[in-house]
Amino acid sequence: MTPLGTLVGRRGRRDESGSAVVEFVWVGLVLLVPVVWILLSVFEVQQGAFATTAAARSAGRAFVLAPDEATARQRAERVARQVLDEQGKESMPLVLEVRCSAGAGACLSPSSTVTVVVRSGVELPFLPEVLSGATSDFALEATHTVPFGQYRERR
């Protein structure tokens, strides 16, 4: 015969064999999903930042190599869009701003400095509308300054 206290102790306990695996899987999923989303978002923003920076540099170079300002602005816009497309960012918005130290109409004159600003943004992956509000874009901006004559040959 067994003592009464041992019987009561055995009946009061639950069998917990195998529950550690279930708990590990659930905790792993709860932690793994946000970490993967954060990593994907960081990679997307970094890729967009590289594309925006490359677009600003290329647009500045294209601007100062043009024969006149009207052509320069068209070339800068076209080159910036082409760079974004080549980086795999066809859907990125593009706003191009050109500022000149010598003022409008004198951008392509000696001692002038041209500053190109590219504003864009990337959409964060898998972001629910509940969390994003109206937009899920991450704004990006790149600036590049080119002195006139840097990419021209001396005559």
From TrEMBL:
It comes from the Bacteria. Keywords: Membrane, Transmembrane, Transmembrane helix. It comes from Nocardioides yefusunii. This is Pilus assembly protein. The chain crosses the membrane at residues 20-40.
